[in-house]
Amino acid sequence: MNPQGGKAFGILKAKQDDRLEEINKEFLENPKYKTDEDLEDKLRAFKLKYMEFDLNNQGDIDIMGLKRMLEKLGEAKTHLELKKMIKEVAGEMGETISYSDFVKMMLGKRSAIAKIILLYEDKAKEPEKPTGPPTKKTFSDLP
Length: 143
Fold this sequence. Notes:
CATH superfamily: EF-hand
CATH topology: Recoverin, domain 1
Oligomer: single chain
Number of domains: 1
Strand content: under 5%
Order of helices and strands: HHEHHEHH
Radius of gyration: 19 Å
Number of strands: 2
Strand order of the largest sheet: 1-2
CATH architecture: Orthogonal Bundle
Largest sheet: 2 strands, antiparallel
Helix content: 55-70%
Number of helices: 6
CATH class: Mainly Alpha
Shape: globular
């Protein structure tokens, strides 16, 4: 699935991680977002999610990247719906979603379609079940 493999792909992803981390620092220093709860954790999660779909490190998610994202989430959309979603996030002239646009969408007050789908994905994940033998209980643990 990845366009590259091995060492080259690792270097590509490391460069991408560095570039997105710089953008995250800008958001952390921006007074507009200072009041957001858990901003650093949110930005870390947004970066990982974005990297998952910007596979070639071009710095943006194009219509095919968005299509893959939504198909993976079980939310396949038509070409026109995908174009509308990109315009909603990136503006009328946008044909791709930059990381900055992605973060602004996720932190913003507007309910962009892509934001709703991504938030739904997180809520749909089942909590991890504990593995191993159950913990021993005593009488004092009973309700």
